[in-house]
Amino acid sequence: MSDMPEKLADIVDEFASAPREVVLEMLLEFSDAVPPLPEGLKAHEGMEQVPECQTPFFLRAEVQPDDTVKAWFDCPPEAPTTRAFAGILAEGLEGASASEILAVPEDLYSRMGLATAISPLRIRGGTAILARLKRQIREQEGTRA
């Protein structure tokens, strides 16, 4: 899948080819992949809430001088599915450039085959996380031009 960073494409392919009965288990493994917030970035401060998520979910993206993007996610452990979306993005987008992230397809979670494993409401929340991440990147790129 050339329309997304290689790490993310590998994750998508892994999910898409997995038997349906293990997809949810695989998804939940990513809930542990969310790195802790760095010191100095306090929970929710300077982060944008994603109200489409049923759970309090916050994110922040920063385009670095080398055009790579650092992203931080804050979501309670009691929301493993939502945390898993963040874990997938954290792992799959690590080291990716702004343009690579902006090229990630909006239907990412459907491509992974998650629509058969989780509710449409949760898919909508995951899609909103990606959309807000991209919007923050576009806004920063607009101020750098």
UniProtKB/TrEMBL annotation:
Pfam families on file: SufE (PF02657)
InterPro entries recorded: Fe-S_metab-assoc_dom
Residues of the Fe-S metabolism associated domain: 13-136
Family: Belongs to the SufE family.
Protein name per its UniProtKB record: Cysteine desufuration protein SufE
Source organism (scientific name): Couchioplanes caeruleus subsp. caeruleus
Taxon lineage: Bacteria, Bacillati, Actinomycetota, Actinomycetes, Micromonosporales
